[in-house]
Amino acid sequence: MEAEGPPDASEKEDSEESRQQDLQDGERPDTAKDPETELDADKPNESSAEGEEESEKESTKGTIPGDDLSQPDLADGEKSDISKDPETELETEKPRESATEGEMEVPENESSDENKLRKGSNQEDQADGEKSDTSKDYAGQLESQKIREPSGEKESKSSPSKEPPGEEEVPPIPEGQTEGIEKPVESAESDSSSTQEEEEQEEDTEKPPEPEKKPEKLERKISETFFYNYEDLYSQPFVTSDSGIPINLLALKHSFGYDCTKRANLLLLDSRTLLYVAGNQLVFLDLKTKYQSYLRSSSGGGIGIITVHPSKQYFAVGEKGWKPNIIIYEYPSLKPYRILRGGTEEAYAFADFNHYGTLLASVGSSPDYMLTIWDWKQEKIVLRSKAFSQDVYKVTFSPENEEQLTTSGSGHIKFWKMAHTFTGLKLQGALGRFGKTAVTDIVGYVELPDGKVLSGSEWGNLLLWEGGLIKVELCRTGRRPCHNGPVNQLVLDEGELVTVGGDGYIRVWDFETIDAADSVDDTGLLEMEHMNELLVGKNVNLSSIMKIHDLGQPIWYAQDSSGAIWKLDLSFSNVTHDPECLFTFHSGKIEAMGVSPVTYLMATTALDHSVRIYDFIGNRQLTEIKFKQGGTALTWAPRVVNPKGGLIAVGFEDGVVRIIEVYDPRGLAVVAGRTNIGNAEMRLKQVFKPHTAAVTALAYERNGEVLATGSEDKTVFFFAVEDKYEPIGYICVPGPVQALQWSPPSHAESMLLVLCENGFVLQVAAPILGEQDTVSTYEIKGLPTQYFRFCSIKSRIKREEEIERREKKKQEEEKARLAWIKKQQEMGMEIEEEPESEPEKEEPLPPIYIPEEPSPIVCGFYSAPGKFWLSLGGYDSGYLYHCRFSPIQDQISPESRQDEPFDVIPMENTDDSPIQRISFCTSKLLMFCGMKDGAVRVYPLQDKDLSADTMNGYWSFNMHDNDYGQIQAIYSSYDDRFLVTCGADSNIFTFNILSPEDIQRELKAKVPSPRGDLEKEKTAEDIEDPSAYSIENAKRKKEYDQIMKAAEDKKTQKRQELITLRHEFHHLLQRNMELPKHMQLHREEFEMDHRIHEEMDRQTAQRIQLVQKELAWDQEKHRIGLQKLQSRFWDTLEFDTVVVHAIGSNHQISTYRLLAISERYYKARKKSQIGKRRTSKLDWKGKEAEQRRETQKEIGQAAGVTEEEMEVDKLMKRPQMQAAIGRFGGNRLEQIRKIIEKADRAKAKIMQRRKEWDELYKSKPSDNYENPKDVQDIKEAQENMGDFKLKTATNYKIPEHMRMNAEKKKVQLRSLEVAVHEKKLTMNKWIVSLRDLKVAIIEEINCLVQELKSIQSALDVSEQLPIPPIPQLHPEETPEKKFQYDNNILLKFKQEQENKARLSEQVEEIASFAVFGGRFLHAPSLKEIDSPTRASSVRSMRIASSIGTMQPKIFEIEKAEPTEMELEILKKEKIRNIYLQETLIKRINELVVTFDAELRLLRHQKLKLDTQMKCADLRHITWFEELLLLKNFEKHEDTLQEHVNSLSNEVEDMQWKLDNYLTQMEDKKYEITKLQEREKALYATFQASLGENNKFASFLTKVLKKKIKRVKKKEVEGDRDEDEDSDEESDDESSLESDEEDSGSEDEVFDDSVCPKNCDEALFENTLQLREKRLDIEEALVEEKKITDNLKKEYDALAKKVKVVEASLDTAEGELEAFQREKQQRLNELHVVVPLKLHQVEYVVNGELPNDLSQTLVFTNQSLEYLQQRIMVLQHEKLEQRELYKQARQQHKQLIRDRREIEIRIERLEENCNQLMLMKFGRVVDLEALQTLSVNTNLEELKMRVMEKEHVQAQELKKWEEIIFELRQRLMMLMKENTSKLQQLNSFCTEKQGLETKLDALQNNLGAEFQGPRKADIQEKEKLITLVQLQAQEAEVLKEEITLLSRKDGRIFPPPQPPPATKILN
């Protein structure tokens, strides 16, 4: 592990102590080479059955045929020097002994596979440069190691013994497995097959002497405490041997980037540690301290995937490269825990642990896309399968069912399950079918608890998958998508569904709604709304989120593909925090980088529109600035431009260049409202747009005076560097600019090196501001430019290397031979001179190859003035090319240059990964190279000049991603302490150069201070519009506007002149009008007289019309004649004979005279029907089986509704019951429904199980079963396997596809004619094109001759060379000109006709023909020469004329005495003319020679084609003769074929009827079975209605089973015949009834029409109804049986008829076959011409060819060799078949043993099941009947009736209660009224008493009647007392009534009535 500090020494001490402890605990004394092996052997199990069962599980668990990749021997470990890590422990369990079998069992995953994988690990070790002897020694020791049974405690393992194995010892590993160690692992299938073969050999040859003993089965297990050593795993830098370069030349300091576009590149290890991949590094980021630590890739090929264990204790890292590994690390110790090998070929795409963390699923990327299930703790492959044929993005286990997985990717989703088959555990995948939904890439999905899967889509909707199909597509209301973009992740969190979209939204959905979602219409869409949503931010593209709990609170971290890591709060409460952006990075490829020349700052830019500044000494990002367009180029201004180092120039993709200032804001004055918090800020200083395409390069001149910018628009723009950059001008270059570099200060002149992508290199001088004319354009015309166009020499270098290698090899062989001769001579042996053997034929040297498209220039730099080094990509990669500019520049145009480098330096291992960027340190002693594969190379240089000797050693380290992480920039810091790299994988790395400990703490990055006037300046106005004009376009637009303005001014001036003339004309008209009328001119008099022209036109038209009338008949006559001749002889001719002659020789070539072929020959012809093939018996059987399966399926569907459901439906349909159920019986009915559904489910499960059993038994092959594939293979072998029967043989049978008839033969002839025509047509086109080439050459020679004549006119006669003759076209080369004419040709023809003929009529006909020509082509006249020829001739004439005009001037000057300079000029001119004369003559000769060579080559090809055409003519004759013969046989053959077809159709129809009968009989059998089941159900219903201990059971049973005569009612035209109806009875009785009747012994006569006393009448009525149903069923049974018997009879009769017709069909086919044989014999009698060459004739008699070749056979050598090789192949196949038979026998034995064991196990399980039933039920019961036990519907119906009656009574009782309540209310009112009256009476009494008292006081003792109490008072008092008592009783009654009403079963009693004697007072 790498970190930002030194490694912890305590960890090393701990690991060393653990190793020493393990060594002390070891059991082997020899631990120097082999790790310790701990074998824990358990004793055999006593129970043989349990042992067999466990061993069966162990042997079948995770085994796949062909994929038996067990884990490598952990004793070997990952490296061959694993002896350094002796922590390996092997736990070995002995197998249980089987009590039934005594044969030896060899485990499948035995040591052969392990040794092979051990060999594979050794090969990996050798690739890493380590020794592999240790693993081999250990493997050898493991072969002979013997393991003894433990006796109570562990025994020490002794050294290998040579004694034979004893009773308690394991036999040694056979030699075959030992040899397997040395062989490489080819494939899993070969491993498994070889293992099986070796095990069989071991059983046959190395059985122990005691057969009853079995070998012990060893299963090696890895100890839980085993760890690998990280120091032995991680990849290290590569250093050239003996180079002296320190391995710590560069040390990783910090990683600034983040590959945000990589899938699942953000994981959480705990609440404060993030894990992500950066190139070849794993970065551990502490969120609190921002501290980074690193883990290196083990392979150096990159890291593909990372995933974390559910416990967070481990994390897995999937590597990239050839056969990458998955390494499991422990956290937080970061020790390598496990290494998984062989999961994929090149890289891993995704990995996932299961819910419990016991298994790991991984999927590979291209090319294999392998899905692998790992037992990762044991490093074993459990299962594997190819996931898909396209990119797979994700694989996960189902959280609910770990035997199910899901994968998704490009255009697919696939559902997997681990299925237990008879061959073991297998992966079965079902591809999701999109149906009507558009196919989409699926990135995110989630597996629901019930097995359904919810996935995202590219358009943002959610897809719910069930059973491999889309159940529904979810969207938001209004058909809006769930996300505006792809759904990248779905998470099921605490019952809620969270979706993460590329639109920056996180939405939460109701899980229950989604789980129960279903489509409501044909669109398949379901609209729903989310519950919550969170917008993370604008321009955010979320790819994944992770959840972790911190202090009990859930926290989410999100990966943003736009270059950020977010911290989110998804609680959606009142205190929810806003999204927090933790880190920001560049998104995607980093385009450019620059390093400050004065401090430790660097600047980067990318297409994410940002420019960022980093402090790489403080490991932090300082600031960033955003623009509208992405950046493509960047450079930091040198010190000469800005001494503070605060200026950078950035180029963008829209052609804009921005000058940006970097400054420290803390240096500005503090102003209110501004907070100087940041350490650095950027400010836009100046913006300009010099280009129209992306800026690709920026470079400051060495003195800082000029800035050059290069672009993809093939221009380089120069700016004067001042306080404000001023444009100087631009130059155009031949290709897109790749790089710019100014010459270093060591060069005398300041030159700019321009590297173009298409292979051009330019050198231009620095322009000076003001020297160019920039009025109209900025383009610099006269700037001195040197060109270099790279020409590939790589193939030539390879060729020279091969020649050198061969010469060296020859020298070594000669040296060895001489040494051997010398040795023999020293030994005194005579050496015979061997005859010189013929030299061996050497392989041809590699050809010289130059790519058509030039290799792109990647980078380059100056080496010396005019010299430079180049690095190229493509074909020419692998070298550094030293080039220089040629001194000859003017004579050759840049496009035609072919410049080669003068020196090369081969760069090791750069053929596929060229050098992308090159930079040097300040001292020029180190050259840093950035490679395409992301590696960093450093070349130490002894001197500043590069050479192969100085660059023979280098340091290399893979840092960036190896696939897409090519290094974009690599620079060292200004003081050479640090190195900075950036790549296309978004990563930025900084390194310490040489010694990291030299870095002092006081080193800090100093941000430049701001300028003094910075605050006063305004920020430059930015160019935000991408379509804005560039500087040049703006200049041209200005000039164009000026031109257009001048043109408009001129137009305006002309218009004014016209207006003036018009005014003058109108003025004249006005003056004319002012004159007197007799003096006025008419309006027509102002115009010119037009009558003369009108008259001339009229006369001409009349004459033409007259001539046309006179010649009309002749014209039509000749036109028709010409048309007939043309259609007869010319239109049918597609090609006339064209003879092309050579120019310099007598060779010639002619075309084929080719007639046009009819279009119908090109159309596809339908082949005549030979006859329908008779369907074989296998086909009929297949159809029958398919129809039966369909019938059973329909039967199963029909039987889905049970009788209980029908009864429940009857109950539900009754309207009266609905009301009762609504209040009282609802719950009960719901319980009944649930019970019935439960029973139905049990029945369906039982039926499904029976169906599966039936299908299994159906799939069981019969004893005479033959595999259809084998039958087909045998048939193909019989037809095609080298059986070369001659057509003349008597037993030759014509295959059906080779049978020939007249129609087929016609098609053959037509195809042959078409093929011949196409061949000739192609050749004719080539010859005509050759003729056209000759015409072009003649024209070019004419031009060259004219130019030559003009040149020779300026030379002396003695200096003139003879002019080559101009070739001419022969008449036969242009035969079409015979039918072309012009006016000159017609006039000449007219003259000839006048001389030959005297009649004037002929002359008129010819004249008319000339005027009204036919349809022939009109060739141009001499005056109508085409424009190019005329232009060339005019050009040559001008040259000649110019030279001619110059010549007199020269002579005139010569008359005057010329000066020396003029003589020198004349001499140069003369030399130039002589050179041009020779060049032109040479060019003419080259054209002639080239044309003649082309003609000879084409002539040779035509001769070959002539031979083929003759053969085709011979074949055509033969086929035509066969056609005539076939026409004679056609009539009889058609008759026989029609007879065969009619019989075949008849057989087919009968077979269809037979199938129909079978289907009907199957249906009837099913109906009978269904009726019988209904009968049984009826009796079961009856027994259920009786209940238990019913005393009338016997009587009711007799009533049910009583036979009665039933009347069948038939309507006979409205009359009823009762007598006939009474005669028809149901004679058949059911089997169950007859059994019951026979079993009874009572013959009593009973009356079934009267219900017995005390018997339930409802039960009696129910019994009568059931009896009626029984009788209906019995009648239906009788009817169905009759129908079945009739169908059987018809089937048998038709089957007999089918046999007769089939026999007739066989006879007819035999006759047809005999006729075909006769026809073939007649065809054999025809003679066939076969052209042969002499070397093809091998039939020789006495060394000569015999005269008679009639007995010879024409046969191909290939077929003869094939037959000879077939003998060896058959012998080999025979051996293979024997071996297969042997294996099949062994497998058969094993299957018999397995079957016996399974039968014993079944018996034991049945016995246990019976015991459990006895314990639970007391007897053995039918579990299926128990499971399907349902409710008694009749009883439930009776209960429902009772409930109905109770409901009615309750309603009546409620009415009476209401009446009683009203009466009580009335009673209460009366009581209240009576009480009030009593109170009034009481008041009256009291008042009376008072009056009496007063009266007594007034009249004391006034009478005896007033003495004592009065009688009325006494009675009143008694009445009141009685009333109070009565009211108290009523109160008690009311209390009791309230108490009763408060109970459920309370009853209301009437209130007690007062005694009759008591009267209530009114």
Structural key phrases:
alpha+beta; 5-stranded antiparallel β-sheet; 63 strands; disordered N terminus; single chain
Topology:
Layout: E1 2-3, H1 9-25, H2 48-60, H3 111-127, H4 133-144, H5 175-182, H6 188-205, H7 230-233, E2 238-239, E3 250-255, E4 267-270, E5 273-278, E6 281-286, E7 292-296, E8 303-308, E9 314-319, E10 326-330, E11 336-340, E12 348-353, E13 360-364, E14 370-375, E15 380-386, E16 392-397, E17 404-409, E18 412-421, E19 424-431, E20 445-447, E21 453-455, E22 462-466, E23 469-475, E24 487-493, E25 496-501, E26 505-510, H8 511-515, E27 525-527, E28 532-535, E29 542-550, E30 553-560, E31 564-568, E32 580-584, E33 590-595, E34 601-606, E35 610-615, E36 620-626, E37 631-636, E38 647-652, E39 657-663, E40 681-688, E41 695-700, E42 706-711, E43 715-720, E44 726-732, E45 737-742, E46 751-756, E47 760-765, E48 785-789, H9 794-826, E49 857-864, E50 867-872, E51 879-884, E52 903-906, E53 915-920, E54 926-931, E55 935-940, E56 955-958, E57 967-972, E58 978-983, E59 988-993, H10 1031-1074, H11 1091-1110, H12 1112-1130, E60 1133-1135, E61 1139-1141, E62 1148-1150, E63 1154-1155, H13 1177-1198, H14 1203-1213, H15 1215-1259, H16 1268-1280, H17 1302-1352, ...
Parallel strand pairs: 23-27
Antiparallel strand pairs: 1-7, 2-56, 3-59, 4-5, 5-6, 6-7, 8-9, 9-10, 10-11, 12-13, 13-14, 14-15, 16-17, 17-18, 18-19, 20-21, 21-22, 22-23, 24-25, 25-26, 26-28, 29-30, 30-31, 31-32, 33-34, 34-35, 35-36, 37-38, 38-39, 39-40, 41-42, 42-43, 43-44, 45-46, 46-47, 47-48, 49-50, 50-51, 51-52, 53-54, ...
Helix pairs in contact: 3-5, 13-21, 14-15, 15-28, 17-20, 17-21, 18-19, 21-25, 22-25
